[in-house]
Amino acid sequence: VELGEEESRVKSRMQSLIDTLLSMDRARFFHQPVDPVRDGVPLYFDIIKEPMDLGTVKKKLQTGAYRSEEEVAADVNLTFANAMTFNPVENIVY
Description:
Layout: H1 5-23, H2 44-47, H3 54-63, H4 69-86
Helix pairs in contact: 1-3
């Protein structure tokens, strides 16, 4: 299915937004899904039931998995809500 002109512009803006977020220094924590072993957080999936990261958001945008800007925003918000739920306030990831 080919995107209409407006849908294509929206997708482009969303991709630009995600690329901008990913380019920020502290975004390095959000480039890929949390791996409890690699990241040293064995209880992560006990606390976070719906994991999300910006790398996954970018992939979903590229593959056309989102139907609206609101879905993109929901996953971006979920990424940061998870970080704030799991990490203490004094942690840089929070």
